[in-house]
Specification:
383 residues; binds cytidine-5'-triphosphate; 18 strands; binds magnesium ion; 5-stranded mixed β-sheet; alpha/beta
Length: 383
């Protein structure tokens, strides 16, 4: 309720996201850890004035959408959308509770709308009956006047229209019915109201309230995480030396339960750390016979699966092998290539280098090898 009026919100989430591309519509992309439609509906569910939320989903995603909303504690009625945004909103309007006084219409593709914006739209709609949020355009707009002719417009008069758009219920239902009677198609709700003869009032929107349309709009929603890993192993006679997933000719190898690939161990710990998934000791304990003598490349493949299941992809990995001998510079590229293959990423994402400790300490005395790795993981994929 807002000032004793019943308020409903319709969230249009039935588009196909063709300009974004991808295997699922953009409203199911991850925005800061939540599916976009959940993030957007969550703004309305947080707003205490909203009595009813209607989410319009496309027929193929209704169940998934309902499940995601429920899982996140958002109560919403689901409507099945249509071919164009206008058709979807119309389906939402048909589900409005009878006692609704005012309706807010919002795009699921605008997950950064502020509760304050919703409240301002509500305050304005009580007086003005039809309200849109809009911001002054930043670019100068040219308008085509013929096939090859265009004119500069007066930028100070131009506004980019956003959602939410707020209407008296009777007014917007009447406008939609009229549009359908007359076969009119508009790009937003205000266009239909205006065509039906109702004046539309602008209130200040926000430049943060962007509509996520193409891949380029997603970085704002990307999460980057950093991880670090360190490992050291002592030399042991009679073992092969594995570093970075390859065998390096040397007079001895490293002691360990697995193949003792100290470099891949540091890399795996960095990856698991960045994903918030503990460490290799926890995932592949040396008390477990299954991991005795196992290739660390096989473990790296498992780690790749773990971080992928969490929705992360590798940003980059930088690792250093600390050894007095053998010299690893000649093997760096082969190591990057081998590790990249196991992780399913391109080689340029992995940088491996070597250093010594100038004969100091256990490494300087030739007692073993250590490795240190840092990585970034990126989350912007599908939920
Ligand atoms: N929308 C809808 N039903 C449609 C088309 C669009 O509910 N048939 C919704 C979208 O889900 C989005 C909002 O309307 O939240 C704004 O539309 P737009 O940004 O154009 O999204 P899409 O139509 O999904 O994207 P595209 O135009 O690139 O295909
Ligand atoms: Mg569209």
């Amino acid at each position: 309720m807002y000032k004793n009026k019943k308020i409903a919100a319709i969230i249009a989430a039935a588009g196909s996201g063709s300009r974004m591309g991808g295997s699922a519509p953009k409203q199911y992309l991850d925005i800061c850890g939540k599916a976009m439609v959940v993030k957007t509906a969550g703004i309305f569910s947080k707003c205490s004035h909203i009595d009813c939320i209607i989410v319009v989903a496309d027929a193929g995603h209704c169940e998934k959408c309902e499940e995601l909303l429920q899982k996140n504690g958002i109560n919403a009625i689901i409507a099945v959308g249509g071919e164009r945004r206008q058709d979807s909103v119309y389906e939402g309007l048909k589900k409005l509770p009878l006692d609704t006084d005012y309706v807010l219409i919002h795009d699921a593709a605008r997950p950064f709308a502020a509760v304050r914006l919703i409240e301002e739209a509500l305050e304005a709609v009580l007086a003005k009956k039809a309200v849109v949020c809009a911001v002054p355009v930043k670019d100068t707009i040219r308008m085509m006047t013929g096939r090859e002719r265009s004119v500069t417009t007066d930028r100070s008069l131009m506004y980019a229209v956003q959602t939410p758009q707020a209407f008296e219920k009777r007014l917007i239902v009447d406008s939609y019915e009229q549009a359908y009677r007359e076969g009119f198609v508009g790009t937003d709700d205000a266009a239909l109201a205006e065509r039906a003869g109702y004046p539309v009032h602008i209130i200040a929107g926000s430049y943060d309230n962007i509509k996520i349309t193409t891949r380029g709009d997603m970085p704002a929603a990307t999460e980057t995480r950093v991880g670090t890993g360190f490992d050291a192993h002592a030399f042991a006679a009679g073992r092969k030396l594995f570093l970075g997933g390859i065998e390096i000719p040397y007079e001895k190898g490293l002691a360990g339960h697995s193949d003792a690939d100290v470099l891949l161990h540091a890399v795996m710990d960095a990856l698991l750390g960045a994903a918030g998934c503990g460490d290799i000791g926890g995932h592949f304990p040396d008390s477990d016979e299954r991991y005795k003598g196992i290739s660390s490349l096989a473990l790296l493949e498992k780690v790749a699966g773990i971080i992928k299941s969490k929705g992360y992809s590798v940003g980059n990995i930088d690792a250093v092998v600390i050894a007095e001998r053998p010299k690893i510079s000649g093997y760096r590229l082969e190591m990057s290539k081998t590790a990249a293959k196991a992780l399913g990423v391109s080689e340029d994402k992995i940088n491996i280098k070597g250093t010594t400790t100038e004969n100091m300490g256990f490494i300087g005395r030739g007692e073993g090898i250590a490795a240190h790795a840092v990585c970034t993981l990126i989350k912007s994929g599908l939920v």
